[in-house]
Structure formats: structure tokens, C-alpha cells
Amino acid sequence: MIRPPFRFLILISLTLTVCLGVQLPISAQETTSGHPPASNPDSPVPQTQPLLDRTINRDISIYKLPKNILQDQVTVFSFPKKLAKGEHWWPTIGITGVTAGFIASDPYSAPAFRNTTDFHGFNNVMNTVNTAAFIAAVPAAIYAVGFVRNDSYAKDTALLAGEAVADGFILSLPFKAITARRVPSSYFGDGPYSDSFFQGSHNPVKSGGFYSVHAMAAMSVATIISRRYRNHKWVPFVAYGVAGAICFSRVTRSDHFPADVFFGGAMGYVIARYAVLTARE
Q1: pTM
Q2: Domain residue spans in the chain?
Q3: Distances (CA, A) of 151 to 30, 52, 117, 144
Q4: Are 255 and 208 in contact (CB under 8 A)?
Q5: Lowest mean pLDDT: which of 20-29, 141-150, 222-231?
Q6: ω before 211 within 30° of 0 (cis)?
Q7: Residue 63 has pLDDT above 80, yes or no
Q8: Burial 266-281 (b: 16+ CB within 10 A, else e)
Q9: Which of the two residues, 82 and 25, has the higher pLDDT score?
Q10: Which of 148, 210, 142 is nearest to 180 (CA)?
Q11: Cα 179 to Cα 208: distance, rounded to the nearest angstrom
Q12: CA-to-CA distance for 75 and 276, rounded, in angstroms?
């Protein structure tokens, strides 16, 4: 039996995807080839036609998903080589600097969430199972709407979201295995929380550690949807707002330190935006 909080999350997911489907004008529907239908040059362009993201220049399908993920991994794991050539230094310094700041403050910020019951109701709703199911339900619902409406753009959006999550998960494995960071919930009271790195499990598939897969997945899905449907101005606010709530819940539940969540969310955005959406232009 599905608990009420879980039903609430499912309702939000379905409402979001139905709104996306309903607000997409029929005049802007794509053909099954993934391109907009041909238009008469003499006829006026409808003002309601969305400015769909056309940065993708590759085949997107369930059958080609493994190949696309593999190609993404080449892009992701070749990033250090680009850094060595002097590329992407400022964004890297920014993300690294903020993460380092969070790491320095983690031993002091984590006990505040560990020792309070102020977020009890929020944590019950945003538990690990519910949030993971919600993250998966959004692309699944978008794909279902696209399938029913024969909308290849919606189906591609869902597949790209799944691809971004898979990319981020694969990258998280070496991070977790190497850093072996303990989670705040493994401490009692005021800690100390300063011995978290290299003190936990080196098993990368275990929960917790550096970085947060939930944060990465939530931000990946939010970024794909926000970029692909940015003509609807409310979509980025809702998508990133929900992703932010999921990220925050990882801290309030003491499942992760703030640094784990920030870095995971940053990886989700970077991978979705620059490895998936702009791949093979």
C-alpha cells in the first residue's frame, strides 16, 4: 500500500508532466523524425510556438542509450586532459572552491541538522525511497505523455534525462570508492565530524559518501527539462525548485554533508548541460 506522502509526490510528478504536455502547442509538435513539421513560408509563424532546444545532433532512442552513455563517459573522463590544456579553469575553480568551503564547514553545520527534530515532517516525505522514486517518475511520465501523443521531443527529453542520471551515477563510483566518506547519520550528537573522509566504506554502491547521487540525479533531470522546455518560463522555477528541495532533504536527513550535496548537484548540472545536451553538436 502506497503511503500518503508517496502519493503526494506521484501527484506532483504527474501534474508537472501533464502540464508540459498540455501547454505544448499542437503547431509546435514534432514529427516522428525529431524535426518540426514543414511550414508554409507565406503563412505567419504562430506566436505560441516554443523555442525548442535544437543543440542535439545525434540519434536518441532506447536502443542507442548504452552507446550514447559510453560516448558521454569519454567526454566526462577526458575532462582532466582539457584542464591540462588550460580549458574550463574558471568554472572548475569556482566549483572546487565552493566545495572546499563546504567541506571546511561540514563539521560545524552537520550537527545542527543531526540534533534537531524541526524537519521531522519534511524528512518523512522526502525520504530516500520517495525522492528516488520521484526522480525516476518524472522522466517516465514525460516519456508516457510523449508516447501517447506521438511526441518524439518529449520522449527524447525523457531519454536524455535518464542518460544524464546514468552518466552521473557512473562518475560517482570512483568518487565514492576513493573518498570513502562517512555520512552524518553515522555520528552521534556533536561528533566530532571532522574525520569523515577515508573513514567509511570503500564500496561505491553503498549509500552515503562523496558525492550525493540523489542531488546529482535531481539536478540532472531538472537541467534537462529546464533546457528542453525553457520556452515555458515556469518550468525552470518548478524543476530547479523541486530539485533544490530534494538536495536540501539529503542534508536535513543527515544522509549527506552539505559539501556532498553541493558537489553532487553541480556534477548533475554540468554533466546534463555540457556532456549530454551539447554532445556531438
Answers
A1: 0.78
A2: 52-276
A3: 6, 13, 45, 10
A4: yes
A5: 20-29
A6: yes
A7: yes
A8: bbbbbbbbbbbbebee
A9: 82
A10: 210
A11: 11
A12: 9
